[in-house]
Amino acid sequence: MLANRTGDNPLKPDIESFRRRITSELTQVGDSFAPAQGAATAALLDLSSTGLPFMDVIAQPAMDESARERLELRRRKLQAALARINAGTFGCCCECEAYIEPERLESDPGTVFCFDCITERDAEAARRDGRHY
Ligand SMILES: [Zn+2]
Prior knowledge:
The chain is mainly alpha-helical and 133 residues long. It folds into 2 domains: 13-90; 91-133, no CATH class. It is 71% helix and 0% strand. It has helices spanning 15-50, 54-87, 102-107, 115-132. Helix 1 packs antiparallel against helix 2. It is flat and about 45 Å long. 11% of the residues are buried. The protein binds zinc ion (ZN). Zinc ion is lined by residues 93, 95-96, 98, 113-114, 116-117.
């Protein structure tokens, strides 16, 4: 074990276990894409037989769409995390390059910001959303 190579992350995450975790979650996300699309299509095909008012029916695909967007976001986040693992930068904050707290990586391997930076960004996003809506 080369525990202390120069430039290594002192809080070095267990890269291989994170790689496995991310890969398997990516598979899950990929799997849930296909059935979601199938379900939306099935809902549309059912339209003619349900006799539901148009507005009731249209609400369903809209929900599927936002679920799909969340999945797509998640997938991109996980793919980016894998890329960082391959690049050797996994576990470093994208904003300030500090090491991300291990427990944060543990709870979400797709995390790209340290606690300080995510707090900052959340506050910013909240301000943005406040303006937007
Ligand atoms: Zn940071």
